[in-house]
Amino acid sequence: MTHDDALRMAAARARAAEMLPYLATALFACTPVRSDDVPTMAVDDRWRVYWNPAWCAGLPVRELAGAWLHEVGHLLREHATRFAELGEPPELAIMFNVAGDAAINADLDDAGVTLPPGGVHLGHIRGAARGMTAEQLYRLLPRRPDVSTVDCGSGATPGRRPWEPDPSTVDEAHRGIDADRADQVRRQVAAEIRSAGQVPAGLARWADDLLDPHVDWRTELNSVVRRKAAEVAGTRDYTYARPARRTVPGVILPAMRQPRPPVVYAVVDTSGSMDRDRLTRCLSEIDGIVQRSGRIRGPVRVVSCDTVTGELRPVRSVAEVVLTGGGGTDLRPAISAVARSRPPADLVVVLTDGDTPWDPAPPRENRTARYVAVLVAGDRHDVPRWFRKIVV
Ligand SMILES: [Zn+2]
User: Fold this and answer.
1) Which among 30, 78, 188, 295 has most CB atoms closer than 10 A?
2) How far is the CA of 102 from the centre of ligand 1 (A)?
3) CA of 372 to the centre of ligand 1 (A)
């Protein structure tokens, strides 16, 4: 019987990919995990899809395909991260799950997908309208955690669930994907949605949001936040020892504490080769960083550099950025100055045309930060491997 179940799950995934081909990349990035402990079907933050064999056995493949598309919707839309960003009490996560379900299902209803019975649809939420985001729908819901037992797992709202394995005991085949790979999958799916003809409105907007800024600073910043959260998981962010814990049938959710906001530094190349147009582009990227990090609070610390490192200034709006320079280019002193700065950087963004010497390794003073090089309209694209390179 086990074999039959797994085959039906595989058939349902293939069916889902046939129905909405632009989601195929996301569907096949998932790792299915059979579990008697999960009540229905759920996802985790490593894109594992837990499925209950008894529940699945009672559904036609058509509806199982709908369930696949639903669960993948939580992962693409980063519902777990978005709930964490709201700063709401953890016991209300379940209501965000409900809101996310309604947003996903609105699109699937539009696309003519049949879902398993019992799901949340827009019509169940008073005041809900087509095109509302999960955050907007969440605000319409009662602030009571006990009105729902919906739980799509840690891929939908933060916190490891009882059916999700301890990461240290998982074998290679069930390890799932990491946050960087997940971001790649999201970008690819967004690109496929853009080139597809008929797409539900919510998915089209999601793809535009993801792809529109030259650099997706939301993803970059989230990736830093997630990495930090993973480093301290179990010791600081998630705790089962807090009174905030709460039970729903068969589930104990941990209380979640927010990690501190990421510390972001930007180094702007202001050498002579950076003309007005290039500097304007740099400013628009800094604006993107400021806008995105505004949601998680904290200034972006900006320094301009040609061969001389300028003054490091915290800015909360792009209007506060002062760029000085105009000489030759050597960004290395500025990068190491940033690496020595306090508070220590989580993310260092270097904006340049690439015409600068680079060090072969990250500065000794800060090897844990994520370093991103944004290459603006230059021809020099050779950047050392310790940078994530983005060409705009
Ligand atoms: Zn769901």
Assistant:
1) 78
2) 8
3) 33
